[in-house]
TrEMBL record:
The keyword Cell membrane does not apply. Pfam families: LplA-B_cat. Keywords: Ligase. Residues 28-212 form the BPL/LPL catalytic domain. This is Lipoate-protein ligase A. PROSITE patterns: BPL_LPL_CATALYTIC (PS51733). GO terms for molecular function: ligase activity; lipoyltransferase activity. InterPro entries: aa-tRNA-synth_II/BPL/LPL (IPR045864), BPL_LPL_catalytic (IPR004143), LipoylTrfase_LipoateP_Ligase (IPR004562). GO terms for cellular component: cytoplasm. Pathway: Protein modification; protein lipoylation via exogenous pathway; protein N(6)-(lipoyl)lysine from lipoate: step 2/2. One of its GO terms (biological process) is protein lipoylation. It comes from Prevotella communis.
Length: 237
């Protein structure tokens, strides 16, 4: 599997990486591709979700949290620099096989680190009875795209408030409830986040494919479709 790299270290918005997945699927002739990315505090919600039902827009605006819609299904997710996002692009078109392969990749990485992780029928990755990674999928002609959040660490207040509409006042029991459902990878491994990312890449990938400046320009053009208000606030899929 080839690791896809960028020719620069520019900090980019979440929408760029969504466009990068799609661009790689449409234009890069590799059987299996993988890359990781991190963003400033952002909320990303699923293709079929109604934005106003999932996102606390007032809280996000107050705290500088960006909001994006993806083309895959699934639920609303908060991301920031303390966790890492995974993107997998493959020519395999069978949904079940694609999910199974990707989740097994994540389990391989964690088990090699001594973490007894398991997968669920909903394609989540669990440590014990708590979720550490969730996945989502969509299909393009000839390709499947799967992306996942790996909770190495996160801002728990933002996670609770940004994706939960309602009063902005943080309730201690709210954080406690979230912490009972999720877990943070940093509590199970002796690696920093950067060390973990390096371990993931060396475990899963052989070789790399660096995108050209022209290809990056193509991604930036495609990114504009993810930023249109009629897409972000879309009610019907």
């Amino acid at each position: 599997m080839k690791y896809i790299t960028l020719p620069d270290t520019i900090e980019r918005r979440l929408s760029f990486y969504l466009a990068m997945e799609e661009y790689v699927a449409r234009h890069i002739d590799e059987d299996d591709c993988f890359f990781m990315w991190q963003v400033q505090p952002s909320v990303i919600f699923g293709r079929h979700q109604v934005a106003e039902n999932e996102v606390n827009f007032d809280y996000c605006k107050q705290h500088g949290i960006q909001v994006y819609r993806r083309k895959s299904g699934g639920g609303c997710v908060y991301a920031d620099k303390d966790n890492v996002m995974f993107s997998y692009v493959t020519k395999e078109e069978n949904v079940g096989l694609t999910f199974n392969r990707f989740v097994n990749m994540l389990l391989l990485v964690l088990r090699k680190l001594g973490v007894e992780a398991t997968g669920t029928t909903h394609n989540d990755v669990m440590i014990g009875d708590r979720k550490v990674s969730g996945t989502a999928y969509y299909h393009l002609p000839g390709h499947s795209i799967v992306h996942a959040t790996m909770l190495y660490d996160t801002n728990m207040e933002h996670m609770l408030n940004a994706i939960t509409p309602g009063p902005e006042k943080l309730q201690a029991k709210g954080i406690q409830s979230v912490r009972q459902r999720i877990t943070l990878l940093k509590d199970y491994i002796p690696l920093t986040l950067e060390e973990f990312k390096s371990f993931v890449r060396t475990t899963l990938c052989e070789g790399e494919r660096m995108l050209t400046p022209e290809e990056v320009k193509g991604i930036e053009e495609l990114e504009q479709t993810y930023l249109r208000e009629d897409f972000v606030k879309l009610i019907k899929s």
